[in-house]
Amino acid sequence: MGAWRDKYRMRWRRKYRLFRAFRRRRELTSVQNRTKQVRKGDILLFCTMRNEKIRLAYFLKYYRDLGVNHFFFVDNDSDDGSREFLLQQDDVSLWTTKASYRRARFGVDWLNWLQRKYAHGHWTLVVDPDEFFVFPFCDTRPVRALTDWLDASSIRSFSAMLLDMYPKGALDAQPYHEGQDPMEIAHWFDSGNYMISKNDVIGNLWIQGGPRMRAFFADKPEAAPALNKIPLVKWDRSYAYYSSTHSLLPRSLNHVYDESGGEKASGVLLHAKFLDTFSAKAAEELSRRQHYSGSQEYKAYHTRLRDNPDLWCKWSEKYINWRQLEILGLMSKGNWA
Amino acid sequence: MTVGFVMLVHEELHRAEQVARHWATQDCPVVIHVDRRVPSAKHDPLVASLADLPNVKFSRRHRCDWGGWSLVAATQDACEVMLESFDQVSHVFMASGSCLPLRPVEELKRYLAARPQTNFIESVTTDDVPWTVGGLDWERFTLRFPFSWKRHRKLFDKYVELQRKFKVKRVIPEGLVPHMGSQWWCLTRQTLSAILADPRRREYDRYFARVWIPDESYFQTLVRKYSNNVESRSLTLSKFDFQGKPHTFYDDHLQLLRRSDCFVARKIWARADRLYATFLRSNHTLMQGTEPNPGKIDRIFAKAVERRTQGRDGLYMQSRFPGSGVDRGKTCAAYSIFEGFSDIFENFEDWLGQAVGARVHGHLYAPEGAQFSGGGETSSGALPSNARLRDYNPCGYLTAMLWSTRGERQCFMFGPRDNQYISWMVATDPNAQISVITGAWAVPLFKSNRNFADIRREAAWLQKVESEHLEILRSNHTKARVRIWTMADFIESPMEPLQAIIDEIGARNVRRLAEAPRMVDLTGFGQFLQNLKNQGMHPYLMGDFPTNNEPDRPRKEQRRPYLVR
Q1: Chain A residues lying within 8 Å of B333, measured CB to CB
Q2: Which of the four, A80, A293, B73, B105, has the lowest number of CB atoms within 10 Å?
Q3: B359 contacts in chain A (CB < 8 Å)
Q4: Can you give the pLDDT at residue A44?
């Protein structure tokens, strides 16, 4: 009985998410709708952003090179020229909104709506402008090779853990300029301090750790940000992201891990958050209070950032390529060869 | 004399066209079967584009279902067309639309011409097949399978269950011994025509139509009836993973495929432009008449399957999270835990580090934070020493540390003052070597300069914690290598147990221990215990200490290092 009740409850939660998404659709104003270009089988990317102009040029280049066919952006009231920049891109459809990011469940409601409307039957990547998707063989194979393989293996969702990248020395020591690969500056990461537990309700793994936990959350580790993400999904209009891209409904999509000892294939999202732009961003986000659990995360950053911390330590690992991440056990090839 | 190719095509028709053209222009007739499901909008252009080649023909189209009879029917029809239309064909080679020739056709022709009577078809009895899907091996010949496995899985399973329950058995046609194998075979005209013109063919067809995956057994079984010259292997390089689906080749496999010396490979990713461009080039250099050698590819794919099914022991990550019931591979490497040693020996960590050449940490689970070897706030993998972060997930902390330092033996101290959360995990981990001197925690108390009332209270608490820990180590779930001595027993003759522990840790240090670690001065310890007793506490974990152990001391100082040859 319990299992059925549980199943039913999840069904309602999913319906509720979809209903929220439906209600919040009015908050989105279409600025540029090029979705007619989308062909069957195209790989789509969805992204919410605010004042990220400086990052967009490289972001678009990176994902075009991977083989993404069309970009869907929700611009949350940028005033730095992001919108104008995106309008010039041929493969970008753009929506804008002045509504509250927090009340739209940190953008999830907006994207759930756009995905429901445009992504049915497509492989979709949902990432932030500072996240760079790395998957097995990404240096020799396009993302389409991966999605074809996932299709052939009857896999619908693909996990990619968030890996925080940071520079050596103070965050503002090396200024980032537009179009630059952020990993030229922030190319260090923590290779082995990630703590995992399983969420038995939704069925996803909850991963915390890395430099953010070590440097900003030493006195309250439970508040450290979640690093588990499932950004690549063969979308169906009945799916909904549940909590950011950390988990989805239906729950079966969260089973991206093996529990009997084997390894499923997985990737990594290189998280280039810690650039010189970070201090300004943290201050802005703190004043806007639009982030998760009362912007706790940004409060923690703000207090530590005053003394200009160095996230680097002598055990930091320098990023080389996906094979390195695979050997370190941060991602896995699974049975893809 | 030439070889004819029968191609079964259902997707990526442009690649099939490329390959068909490649063979046909080199004087190899091609018969193509296109799945009925392919819409005519795609089918017709394929036919038109190959119309200029007189030796390409299309056979009657069937609607093909994986695991069903239709694939065999399609093959039969196409083979009949091949044998009737092209007299010069001496061998018929089965291929799919995602096959790619790796060696020039000339070489294949030469290879087959040198073996004119040989049938290349993998054909083994069910007992010898490890790769069956869904656990059906012998039963695929004795049950009926009218439902599609891909589309009606539930019906399929239920019907199998039902037949098992009622013990339904089909009779295998007389004279046939079921064999199975890859459907990518290459048969001689003689054998193939004999199979197709068999007087009992209708009977066989009717039987195989209800067999599970007949395309892997029809020709494989019948070939045994007509030919004694069966080379049981496929000329097509095709590897299957643990789900029974073929591995795919990509551009980055180019060198691997080149060196495999196989004639044809499947399956190739349709967008692997470089593979198609390279292997379909006509000015391909001829290799010597070498035998196919897919060994390296086999190893790579076998490893990939192993990674998927076994994984890396001791790794916990986003896509590998073994449940708590799995005892094997909780941690990635052997490690040692020493309890009580650092209390009764001075600088035990340094001594141990020299004796075994391992990384020796202090108390990793100390309440003040982890005492890493060499000090510092972080350790391998940027693991922080901070106690709160550590205690957030103590077991994960240990597995992460062991994973980050794999290749180097880890040792650490432990005691009742430390976070006890890991007790069950290490006790049930076969990788753990746990050595305990019980009651040694009393030595620091004995040496401390504190009020006796506090000491008594703390002693009582530590004894309670340690006895609970010992209970776990002594439980019958324990898988670790556990050694326990009382303190009294241990200091009687410390070198023997130390030698045993160190021998077990590693062969790296073969020489015998030359120098014993220095024991702290225990003069008066017996009296200290007696005082605890006098205060109403019962210190029992350290064993029997005489109240007056003065005569013991000098003898101990003079003792020579333990030497055995």
Answers
A1: none
A2: A293
A3: none
A4: 95
In a domain, A334, yes or no: no
Please state the domain count of chain A: 1
In this complex, do B321 and A313 lie within 8 Å of one another by their Cβ atoms? Answer: no
Domain B2-137+173-292 has CATH 2.70.50: no
CA separation for the pair A116, A126 (Å, rounded): 13
Per CATH, the number for B335-558 is 3.40.50
Give the pLDDT band of residue B492 (cuts 50, 70, 90): confident
Chain A neighbors of B377, CB-CB under 8 A:
313
Secondary structure (DSSP) of B9-71: E-S-HHHHHHHHHHHHTTT--EEEEE-TTS-HHHHHHHHHHTTT-TTEEEPPP----TTSTHH
pLDDT at B558: 46
Closest CA to B444 of B338, B343, B357: B343
Average pLDDT for runs of 10 along chain A of length 337: 80 87 85 91 93 93 95 91 92 90 82 91 94 95 94 93 92 88 93 91 91 89 92 93 89 91 94 87 76 71 74 92 95 92
Residue B312 sits at the chain A interface (C-beta within 8 Å): yes
The shortest CB-CB distance from A259 to any of B242, B322, B396 is to B322
Buried-state track B374-383, b at ≥16 Cβ within 10 A, e below 16:
eeebbbbbbb
Instruction: Please check whether residue B245 touches A, CB under 8 A.
Output: yes
Of residues B29, B33, B47, B134, the one with CA closest to residue B87: B29
Non-local CB neighbours of B344 within 8 Å, separated by 6+ positions? B437, B440, B443, B487, B490, B491, B519, B520, B522
Whether A78 is covered by a domain: the verdict is: yes
Tell me if chain A has a CB within 8 Å of the CB of B380.
yes
Q: How many residues comprise chain A? A: 337
Sorted by where each begins, the domain ranges of chain B are 2-137+173-292, 335-558
Tokens 């009742």, residue located: B416
The pLDDT value given to residue B565: 44
B-facing residues of A in 141-160 (CB < 8 A) are: 141-142, 144-145, 148-149, 152-153, 159-160
Which of B:406-435 have CB within 8 Å of A?
A: none
Rounded to a whole number of angstroms, the CA Rg of chain A reads 19
Q: Give me the amino acid identity at B176.
A: L
CB contact under 8 A, B248 and A228: no
pLDDT, residue B555, reads 45
Token pair 């370190």 in the structure block, residue? A328
Of B269, B271, B309, the CB nearest to A262: B309
Q: Dump the DSSP string for B509-551.
A: --SPP-SPPPBPP-TTHHHHHHHHHHTT----TT----S--TT
Give B401's contacts in chain A (Cβ within 8 Å): 192
| Residues of B in Cβ contact (< 8 Å) with A153 | 243, 245
- The ipTM (two decimal places) reads 0.92
* Residue-wise pLDDT tens digits, A169-186: 888 888 999 999 999 999
Whether A197 sits inside 8 A of B393 (CB atoms) is: yes
Rg of chain B in Å (alpha carbons): 36
Of all residues in chain B, the one with the smallest CA distance to A205 is B318
Contact A333 B320 (CB under 8 A): no
Residue A337 placed within a domain:
no
Q: Which domain holds residue A235?
A: 2-327
Question: Does the beta carbon of A264 lie under 8 angstroms from any beta carbon of chain B?
Answer: yes
- Whether B243 and A153 lie within 8 Å, measured CB to CB: yes
A221:B389 CB<8 A: yes
- Both tokens of B465, joined, read 């914690």
Nearest Cβ partner for B381 among A191, A198, A336: A191
pLDDT in tens, B269-313: 999 999 999 998 866 665 666 778 888 888 888 899 899 988 999
Query: In chain B, what percentage of residues exceed pLDDT 90?
Result: 46
> What distance, in Å, lies between the first and last C-alpha atoms of chain A?
43
